[in-house]
Amino acid sequence: MAWSTREIAQLAGTSLRAVRHYHEVGLLEQPQRHANGYKQYGVAHLIRVLRIKRLADLGFSLSQIAAMGDADDHPEDALRTLDTELAATIERLQRVRVELGLILRQSTPTDLSTDFTAATAVANLPNADRSFVVVLTRVLGSQTMQAWADMLQDPVSDPVTAQFTNLPADADERTRVAVAERLVPYVHALYAAHPGLGVTNSGTPHSAHFVKQAVRDALQELYNPAQMDVLRRLNHLLADQYGSNDQETE
């Protein structure tokens, strides 16, 4: 019995290129050749190609197949190892499907964990506020972040928030002062309704300096100069009232 390279590939259900590659990487021995120089494959070659293809289809790499050798037609240890790896992969993919389902049902932003209970509310925020909350989820502890989530799910309504959001970068000083002053009672209402709000390193591996610097950097990048001036003025007004910077907003 003698087959050509093309015929052995067809019988094994693979490609001519694959058979040649098996030769190149040492997985398949070179067959004898006819007097005219054409290769002549036998049954042993067909069985070897079938075994290589089956193992590759199961998920083994060619280097793993090479390590098994060509004598073992039932590499039990390797098969059991692969089965364990596949079980872990299936479990991971099932978790991914559950998470994808939550993201699709809740329209959750993909930059937020589905564990964040206010993900849907965040999706509806203005872009700058939304990005700021994402940063907070990375630097604040879970307990502090839960207070922010509660606030986002049950917000304190006040027209001044829209005034701040829509404040142009070139807003005059009088306008900025007015918005800052109007924000003071709004912030009081926020803290009254959600006393756990704040910027703290409690429950995180970060230093207090790191957390506050990360928040400051995010604010600087996300909000325009007039908005930042309002936040600084608001911080000073709150500090004057509380006698400290415990409710720092910048």
TrEMBL record:
Pfam families under this entry? MerR_1
Q: Which domain of life is it from?
A: Bacteria
Q: What are the alphabetically sorted keywords of the record?
A: DNA-binding
Q: Does the keyword DNA-binding apply?
A: yes
The HTH merR-type domain extends over 2-71
Could you confirm whether the keyword DNA-binding appears in this record? yes
PANTHER family, sorted: HTH MERR-TYPE DOMAIN-CONTAINING PROTEIN (PTHR30204:SF93), REDOX-CYCLING DRUG-SENSING TRANSCRIPTIONAL ACTIVATOR SOXR (PTHR30204)
Q: What is this protein called?
A: MerR family transcriptional regulator
Recorded source organism is Streptosporangium oxazolinicum
